[in-house]
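From: lab user (bench 3)
To: helpdesk
Subject: output format question, protein + adenosine-5'-triphosphate

Hello, I'm new to running complex predictions and I'm not sure whether the block I got back is the full result or only part of it. Here's what I submitted:
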Amino acid sequence: MTIILGIESTAHTFGISLVRKGKILSNIRRSYTTEKGGIIPLDAAKHHQENKKEIYFEALESSGVSEEKIDAIAVSQGPGLAPCLLEGMKFAKELSKKLEKPIIPVNHCIAHLEIGRTTGAKDPVMLYVSGANTQIIAYSFFKFRIFGETLDIGVGNFIDNFARYMGIGFPGGPAIQELAEKGKKFIELPYKVKGMDITLSGILTNLRQKIESDKYNINDLAYSMQETVFAMLVETAERALAHTGKKELLLGGGVACNSRLQEMCKIMCKERGAKFFCPSNNLLQDNGAMIAFLGEIMFKKGINVQGKAINELDIKPRQRTDDVEVKWR
Ligand SMILES: Nc1ncnc2c1ncn2[C@@H]1O[C@H](COP(=O)(O)OP(=O)(O)OP(=O)(O)O)[C@@H](O)[C@H]1O
Ligand SMILES: [Mg+2]
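Helpdesk reply: Thanks, we reran it on our side. This is the complete output you should expect:
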């Protein structure tokens, strides 16, 4: 029976998980956070370097599997922050050497999508909303095709920046959701949908000016930000459902933890007779389980790197979702 170990380290989180037959045996993660200010890549990488061994042993212990039983090591190859990716790749190579097992290089974004299979979604339109990425994706002929995306920043980074302007540290998403729940008055903000794409930097500038003017209640601003930006996401996702004729919507990525976004997606799906799927929060935010889960599927199709070729294996900080040839579907 195959056991795959997955390593995630593309940004703020270092995670390790063991998966057997699609079942997640353990999913241990620790994240770099700040009190004030955004993520500093070298500091996040240091966090990973300092925590990786402990997380590894914790993941082994909580799965009840000894390391000799591991058949292959799946690692997030990209996209992501280079110093963080390097920590994961270095650790994968160390383990591969020690255990004499192959490495499976996994695309982080596609792992965020494929973990959605655990919810029962079969052929969904996917709304992938994370820190660096915001994309509407659907699978067709060996590629995950992008139907629409942000033309500037990812929605998670957008929310984290908005939070930073209010003096809230990283990650800002959960704190902003709490403020938004207390908001009462809707404040008109720019609504920026361009065809199937969205832009967020103009809205961010507008919000920044509103915060600096001190004329607005911050709960109302957080509420209005969520209502406006999530409506933009739901609108493009709905259009992708209409275009493709698909009948399922799957949410993925850290911002999908937001309960208001989930609620808005549910309402849209109900109105058009589509099914809505969303993994649990520990599978939405960066985690090793999604890497191990997709790694196992790829490994079973013979996709892995062995022997001397491992020395050539490198990180891919800018790899795009639609560059990856999907040989496992
Ligand atoms: N409840 C929430 N509401 C809104 N945003 C949230 C919530 N919880 C987490 N987030 C946001 O999710 C983001 C992190 O998501 P994730 O871990 O998938 O991103 P990432 O790995 O940084 O980005 P990518 O997957 O694009 O590389 C952060 O920007 C964080 O603020
Ligand atoms: Mg991510």
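A quick orientation on your result: The pocket of magnesium ion (ligand 2) is lined by residues 108, 112, 130, 253, 286 (CB under 6 Å). Let us know if anything else is unclear.
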